[in-house]
Amino acid sequence: MQMLMPKPQIFVERTLALIKPDVIAKEEEIEDIILRSGFLITQKRKLQLSPEQCSNFYADQYGKVFFPNLTAYMSSGPIVALVLARHWAISYWKQLLGPSSSVKARRSHPHSLRAIYGTDDLRNGLHGSLSISSAEREIRFMFPEVILEPIPAGQRARDYLNVCVKPTLLAGLTALCKEKPADPM
């Protein structure tokens, strides 16, 4: 009897990771941990943001008490922006980061990156996107040239293959069979 199992599907999710100014010296060490944790680094960029750019990047935090300190801190030195990819990238990256407060992270998640590299609530060492929509917005902010297209899955993928790919393949393979060239390549 054949077991009924779902067809394998590949889901690749992307998230933005930032190595903040105070831990930039640990960049290689952090990247090694990222790679050993099953992530693929698809984009990397070292840059220094102006206070205005930081304000735009953290616009969702505007009006909060820590906002001026956050923009001053994030523009105080170079940062490394990374686009990380893997299955469930956002949730795995958040898990690897630990709580946003480094003090809390040291108590509850002592092996998390923020517990290891962060110093306090503001200087927590690293940034991670909170959701798919924030990841897309943040990746576009740090890498304006990158093309972010949703990866079709399920019925959308089957529809795309049936409408766009299969007819072209069928026509090409039919022509190839009729011609029977000595070197089909």
From TrEMBL:
Pfam families: Dpy-30 (PF05186), NDK (PF00334). The keyword Transferase applies. PROSITE patterns: NDPK_LIKE. One of its GO terms (cellular component) is cilium. Signal peptide: none annotated. Keywords: Kinase, Transferase. One of its GO terms (molecular function) is nucleoside diphosphate kinase activity. One of its GO terms (biological process) is negative regulation of oxidative stress-induced intrinsic apoptotic signaling pathway. InterPro entries: Dpy-30_motif (IPR007858), NDK-like_dom (IPR034907), NDK-like_dom_sf (IPR036850), Nucleoside_diP_kinase (IPR001564). Residues 12-150 form the Nucleoside diphosphate kinase-like domain. Belongs to the NDK family. This is NDK5 kinase. It comes from Centropus bengalensis (lesser coucal).
